[in-house]
Amino acid sequence: MAETSGASGASIELEHLTKRYPGAAEPAVDSVSMEIKAGETVVFVGPSGCGKSTTLKMINRLIEPTGGRIRINGEDVTDIDPVRLRRKVGYAIQSAGLFPHMTVAQNIALVPRMIGWGKGRIGDRVEELLDLVGLDPGEFHGRYPRQLSGGQQQRVGVARALAADPPVLLMDEPFGAVDPITRDHLQDELIRLQRELHKTIVFVTHDFDEAIKLGDRIAVLRERSHIAPVRHPGGDPDQPGRRLRVRVRRRGGGAEAAEPHPGTGCGDHRLSDGDVRRPAPGDLQQAPEQRDARAGRRRRGADGVTASTAPELEETAAPPPPAAPGSRVSWRKLTFLPAFLLALLFATWLWFEQADLDPLTENALSDGQVSKALWQHVQLTVISTFFVLIIAIPLGIVLTRRAFRKVSPLAMTVANMGQATPAIGLLALLVIWLGTGTKAALIGIVAYAVLPVLSNTIAGLKANDPTLLEAARGIGMSPLDVLSRVELPLAVPLILAGVRTALVLNVGTATLATFGGGGGLGVLITTGITNQRMPVLMLGSILTVTLALLVDWLASLAELLLRPRGLETDT
Fold this sequence. Notes:
The chain is an alpha/beta fold and 571 residues long. The chain is 51% helix and 9% strand.
C-alpha cells in the first residue's frame, strides 16, 4: 500500500469480495463490490449475522477473503503482507480492545513504535492524540485501562487507531458497549474528529440512529452482505437503480431493521451512489413527542444532568490511579517470612549448641558435611528448575499454537504420567537405566516438576481474551509481536504460579536424590533414620523445610515484581 499523507483519506474499492468458510453451505459474504470515496464515512448497518463485521475485517485482512480484490488508493492490497497493511489502516473495536498491562501512552504508541518512529516523535504524537480526543495528557498518560471509564477507554481506542496517522479507519461497533449518554457524546466526538482529519471511515453498527447520525452514506446489508439498494426519503421508489425500499420506523427514537420492498431484488450488489442512502435532513427531524422521548433517555435520574453535561460527568467517573493496596499487603507478607526463617535457624543453632551429642552424630553434623549436603541440594533445585522452565514454557507456547493444538491432550497426558508415578519409583527406574549419579536424579526431579509449569502456561495462554488478541492483530502486530507483547505478559500471573509450585516440588523431590547417589539434604535425613540419630534427621528436615519456604518466598517476590502493574486489582 502506497504511503499517503494523513491529512486526508484514501479511496477503497472492493471487487466481488467473497468469504466462504470450510464446510459451510453458503458463503458468509457473497461477491460484495463497493467503492468508497476518500474522506467519506460509510456505515454498514444490518441485522446480526449478515456479514457486516466480516466484510469490514476483510478490508484489513484480519479475515482473509476467499475471492475478490481489495484496492486502497488504487493499489491492490489483496496479496501484500497483511501485517504491513494493518499498520497503515486504523482499527477500533467494541470495548476499545486496550491491553490491560500497558498504560494509555503505551497503548497509543504501539503502532508508531512498530513502524520505527523515534522516541521523541512518539511522545509528541501521544500527547497530541490525547488532547485531540479530549483527555488531559498529564492526567491520563500513565493510567492503565482499568483506571478509565468506558467512554475514556473508547477515546483511547480511537487515539490508538489514529496513532500512525492512517488514511483509513475501520470501526467495528466501537460504541456498542457503552451507555446511551456516553455513546451519544462519543458519536459527537467522532463527527468533530472527522471534520478535522477527513479520514476514510468504514463503520459497522446495528443502530440505524447511529448510522444516520455518523454516515455520509449508509449501506444496508442483508444476508451474506448483499447490499440492499435504497432510496432517499421522499424519492421516487420506481426510479431506475433503486429497487429496494427501506422502512425505518422510529419508536421512541429506536429503529427497526430494514425490510425489502415486495418483489425486489439485489442486483449485482455493487455499492454506488444509487445504492446507498445519504442521510437527508428529514431523517433527523422528529415529532415533538419523539424528540421529548429521546431527550428523556439522555437524562440521568432526576438531577437534571443531560447529554450536554455528560463529558464532565464522564471525566469525573474514573478514579485516580490507585496505590495498589493489594501490593502493600504482599510486601508485608514478604517481610515477615525472612524474619521467621532467621528466627527458626537461630533457635535450631542454639539447640544444637547446647545439646549433648555423641561422636557419630557430631561427625554427621560437622560443618563440612552439612554445608556439602546443603550446597548439593541447592544445585539440584536450581539446575532442575532451569530445565523445567526451558522445557515447560516453550512447550506450553507451542501446544497453544493452532498447528499443534490437537497434540496438546497427548502432551498433558505424558506430563501427568510423570507426576502420577511415585517419585521414588521413577528415580529407581532411572537409576536402572542410567546408573547412579546426579544425571538420574536431575531427570527424575525435572519429570516430576514439569506438569505445573506446563499446565499453567497452557491455561494462562488459553485464558487470554480473544478480543485482545484480535485487536493486537488488527493494529498490525506480527504473530511474534502478539505472543511477546500481549499473550505472554497477560499469562505471567498463571505461569509464575506454576513456577512457584514447581520450585517447592523440586526442593522436596531433591531429598530423594540420595537414593540415586545424587547427594543433597536427603543424605542427612537417611543417615538419621538409618543410624537412629534424631538430631541428624531433625537438622536435615529443618533445612529442607527452610529451603522450601525460602524458594517459595523468592518466587513470591518474583511474582510481585514481574506481574504487570495493569493486571493488579484494587482490592
